[in-house]
Amino acid sequence: MSDAALKLDIFRSHYRRDVSLRLAALAAAMLALAFLVLVDLAKGPSGMALAEVWATLWAGPHGADRMAATILWQLRMPQTAMGVLVGVCLGVAGLQMQTILSNPLASPFTLGFSAAAGFGAALAIMFGGFLPVPGFILVPASAFVMTLLACGLVYCVAALRGTTPEILVLAGIAVLFLFQSMQSLLQFMAAPEVLQQIVFWLFGSLLKASWTTVAVTAAILTACLPVVIRDSWKLTLLRLGDVNAASMGLSVDALRRRSFVLVSLLTAAAVCFVGTIGFVGLIAPHVARAAVGEDHRFALPMSATVGGIILIGASVFGKLLSPAAVIPVGIITAVAGVPMLFVVIARRGKGEQQ
């Protein structure tokens, strides 16, 4: 065997080993998420053993034990399913955002999408009574529309000045402060009982979930995933830098615009029903890269799975802290995200020194 053939054989062996390790890490993360889902279903004001949860799941929504079936399928299952979907949406959107902006501290909220959703929800809560539309439809619809409006504003600025990471970040910061200031103005003008509703929405809670909201979020995620999967290899190329990616035939601006629209849709689907939930889109991509590397064929599903783990883990932790009155997951992810962010900064600083 010649030296070239021997080197090629060694390279293939290393590649197969790396792929096996990445698939094993992905399988372990999915098993961890499945376990947390079972624990989350078992926790609540009326506790259920894991064996009872498993039996009720197998029996289906029309099982013989009507009380257990109602608690599990009508009350807890929509919240847990929504938690997984929101975590997946934010994990995928976060990884895409950090890739197209070439910024490790970027997240779906960097461009003001969260602030826009909060303003839309506050606007609907405050003035929705003047419209003949139920609040449970008007509030998420208004949050969704405002998120897309924020996307449109940033997109227009980027279209005028170029879709470079710097222009996108600067336009996003401007949109962020615009919607935050208008949201603050509404809170200042709101009556005490209306202000309480706005603040509770901004906390971010899975208690608002229902099978209808789960279906809508799942439909948006399902519509976005084929495009995300198709662009996974192109996103990996983009990590090499704009110049290198363009030299390989990649249309960098088109990929950045397409990913930007997908991020806005995924973020809008995630926050319009459950409220603002921070840090998931920031932390999940870093954990995914540490586990499987920069190859987005593996990093995207890993980031989605880690996003689900973070959100369901926060839900379980909130139920353990206060079983009778569930603490909103947005509060827990915000508190837990701070030390996670410090770890990310410390690891990055250590890597740069080496």
UniProtKB/TrEMBL annotation:
Record-linked CDD domains: TM_ABC_iron-siderophores_like
Membrane topology: Multi-pass membrane protein
Regions crossing the membrane: 21-39, 80-97, 109-131, 137-160, 167-189, 209-229, 260-286, 298-317, 324-346
UniProt keywords, alphabetically: Cell membrane, Membrane, Transmembrane, Transmembrane helix, Transport
GO CC, any one term: plasma membrane
GO molecular-function term, one example from the UniProt record: transmembrane transporter activity
Compartmental location: Cell membrane
GO annotation (BP), single: siderophore-iron import into cell
Pfam families (alphabetical): FecCD
UniProt record similarity statement: Belongs to the binding-protein-dependent transport system permease family. FecCD subfamily.
Protein name: Iron chelate uptake ABC transporter family permease subunit
